[in-house]
Amino acid sequence: MLALGIGVQRLVVELDAKVVIGLITSTSGSNKPYSPLLNDCRYLLRRFLQTRVVHVFREGNRCADALARMGSNMAEEFLVFDNPPSPDVLYFVNTDAAGVLYNRSSFCDLIVMPVWLSTGKQKPEPKSAEEHIADGMENGLRFTDCRWRRGLSATNINFTHSPFWVQIWGLPFELMSDDVGKKFGNNIGKFIEVDQRARQSNQAKFMRIGVDLQLDKPLKRGDSPSGIDEVIDAIPTWVSEEMNEGLNRNFTRKERKLWHLNLPAKIKIFAWRACVNGLPTMEAIYTRGISQTKICPVCRNEAETLDYAPLDCAFSSLVWCLWSENPLSIHGIKKSFLDSTIFILAYATLQDLELFFFIAWAIWFSRNRLVHEGCGLPFTQVWHLAKSSVDDFACSATWDLSQSRAPLSSWSPPPPGFHKINVNGASSESDSCSSVGVVIRDCWGQVVAALCKPLQACYPAELMEIMAIEQGVLLAQELQLPSVIVESDSSNAILAIHEKATGSSFGHLIQEILQANESFETCHFKHLSRNFNSVAHELAQHARRTRSQYLWKGVMPPVVASFLQADMM
């Protein structure tokens, strides 16, 4: 309304809320309580000669955010200027609000600035660098520490200190110098350098300096397995002492075969963590103060340690008894988990060791289900889970992928009784427009209906694919088709519908698609290759080129006749 009041003809609306953008730009109706407000917004936007609603990150919307906060905290009003006022009139209440909306190549016709209306308060004198540093170290400025952009390596970490970037907000640009950054850095930790790229522009809002900070918990020194000590990439300081003790173990050449077993990735990770005493047992989380008890949640008899949980618990013993060829039982061995692993590796086969890890993982899986879901598996089912996992993995490892089925070479018609809906969305930033294409065909490949529709703004590709699916489903619902198959070349859009992602930025469109889905007897959403979606793609491009909407029912669209014939060859 403000832009209309001053005669603006071309308008760009930038919002940091994707959900609101989706609601405003959606062309479908809604019975939500805020629909009248959305309709008013759409009506006002259509009154401009050219309108764009785009998304910006919250950092890029700092000025509007500051205006909103100032408006909620002050009784005064804001002034709107057709031309920027002189600098001596302005005084920004918050340094984070020291940004303006400016004219970009004469595209926008308005400059809005927050101003301080005189209430008897005088503009304070500029502070010196020393005063800013003193105030900042106490409570005046905002500090944000972030990850070291070059990563951590064994050459620049000394196990008690680590480099970090620190962002300092609220500092005037004329004070963003190397000397001031060095003073700040030495007050925080040990100064390293000032990031020159963060203050290249005179519109910079913060200064970033590299400092060397002391770690709350020093990293342990010690030898580690081959390859581990080459690079420490952002290693966390909360690595457990037990894990470090396991890493410091000097494995023999024979014991290193553990990491070359023919096992799935999740079983290898479990085996590694079990061997280095890194599983989150009740005793481990009790020691860290996370849990109030360390008693085994299955038998309720003893503390759940790494050796007790997978081997010695009464429930675990029942599972191990079902393994008649268990090398540990045959030799009467009862050792820790790591020692049992080394014994099987030395006196049994690699297949026995693989089954040993599968059984231990299945026992741990059942215990996790009991703790987190309240329903564990019977011991016989745990045994069958381990055996079936071994057989399934062995079977998958023998597949001959070189003789896989030849891919489809063209579009395929739906089965009898079904109609296939192919959809596609197109966007063009150069033309500032988007479009959708829809074609519905029967089991003989004949066109039942087709649609091409332009939109008056450029939307993201994923949003366009969702909108194209919505248009296809609504068209099929209008034709009262009983059973349909919806195909799109966007795997993300199909996945979002399968997962019912109603909480995403385009969740309102997903919700409408799911509601329309209930009107069909059968409805499937599938992904297909872009090479086989040429008809819907050409319809979307035709709508973008002509800026016109077309609907065909029972006839072949002339613009895609050649593509339809190619699909049936």
Explain the overall architecture.
This protein is of the alpha+beta class and 569 residues long. The chain folds into 4 domains: 2-112, Ribonuclease H-like superfamily/Ribonuclease H (Nucleotidyltransferase, domain 5); 129-214, no CATH class; 241-397, no CATH class; 419-567, Nucleotidyltransferase, domain 5. The protein has 20 helices and 14 strands. It has helices at 2-5, 18-25, 35-46, 62-73, 129-138, 178-188, 241-247, 265-275, 282-287, 308-312, 314-321, 327-330, 337-347, 350-373, 379-397, 461-478, 491-498, 507-517, 534-546, 561-567, and strands spanning 10-15, 50-55, 80-81, 111-112, 142-146, 161-169, 190-194, 206-214, 419-428, 433-441, 447-455, 483-488, 522-527, 550-553. The strands form 4 sheets. A 6-stranded mixed β-sheet has the order 13-12-9-10-11-14, with helices on both faces. Strands 5-6-8-7 form a 4-stranded antiparallel β-sheet, covered by helices on one side. α11 crosses α15 (379-397) and α16 packs parallel to α18 (507-517). The longest helix is centred in the middle third of the chain and has 24 residues, at 350-373. It is flat. The chain starts with a helix and ends with a helix. Mean pLDDT is 71; it is low at 70-124, 137-156, 220-250 and 401-407.
